[in-house]
Amino acid sequence: MSERERFERLRLIRSPRIGPVSYRQLLARFGSAGEALRAIPHLAERGGGRASVADAAAVEREIAATRALGGRYLLMGDADYPALLDQMEGAPPALIVRGDGALAARPCVAIVGARNASAAACRFARSLAQELGQREAVVVSGLARGIDTEAHRGSIDTGTIGVIACGIDVIFPPENAGLQEDVAARGLIVTEHPPGVQPLARHFPARNRIIAGLALGTVVVEAAPKSGSLITARLAGEAGREVMAVPGSPLDPRAQGCNMLIRDGATLVQNGADVMEAIGGFDPRMVRQGSFDFVGEPVSSDVAESERAAVVALLGPAAAPVDELIRLSGLSPAVVQTVLLELELGGRLERHAGGRVSLT
């Protein structure tokens, strides 16, 4: 990949309304990021709106700021882009990393849990992370309060990856400033956000998909029934990764999420040996393959107005599966995907988890 193409790909993903799905579709259709950038205004117009592309000077400033902070880019398609994450649905086309990138190529286990975790759970998470490190596994977590913090502390000497929901120059939570710097110096910090981006609420579910995507399996130590940790576990399971949970007292609300996971089929684990045994049986065939092979995301260069109208008529404010739109419209996947891409670029379509879409 030439430096020019790398720059244009970063500019493409930084453009408004471009997400992982539309990014892949545009590259699949046009072959290069430069051609895709030139086509965006026309495609958006066909989708009933207008769209602009990221300013080249702004992207150049971002690159300069990233380098000044000691960060570097990993673009999807690079040889050192994390292989397991590459297979994750909705994997970020561009990562910014700081630290030892080789850690992401080693066997990784995610440890997540409650921010308001009990003292016993924090001690267990730290001990589990230490044991996994001794067994040559790298521990991945989110640098949040509670379980995440202890997971990083337990694995800082053997290999840890912190995935953050902000720019690499932003510290969150503030009390983890020293820990985040330590992880960057001795482990690896990963984000999909440019420098200066603050940790907004909507960024955390997206961060969780990176945590799940980097790891062979995810261990939930303590979590409430409706928590971000269970989102991470769900994403891991949907990607064909091992989902593990530490059982807790039914009298403690913080253990209910873990107990629910075990009831629903997650592997019960009590120590590092249990975790290594679970991921040792990991079958690569269960993982979705070819996320960046430019297959499975068909687009067409020729869509009739009647076909476009037929797809739009099936859409509404409630999210609908793309497969159902293809079935009900009777149109080819290429045509339906093209109409959805045009609507998205035109600001009229929103994409949801699980391959579902709705009109904005």
TrEMBL record:
All copies of domain DprA winged helix, residue ranges: 300-355
InterPro entries, per database record: DprA (IPR003488), DprA_WH (IPR041614), DrpA_SLOG (IPR057666), WH-like_DNA-bd_sf (IPR036388)
Start and end residues of each Smf/DprA SLOG domain: 73-279
Pfam families in the cross-refs: DNA_processg_A, DprA_N, WHD_DprA
Matches recorded under NCBIfam families: dprA
Family that this chain belongs to: Belongs to the DprA/Smf family.
Protein name, per record: DNA-processing protein DprA
Native source organism of the sequence: Sphingobium naphthae
Lineage: Bacteria, Pseudomonadati, Pseudomonadota, Alphaproteobacteria, Sphingomonadales
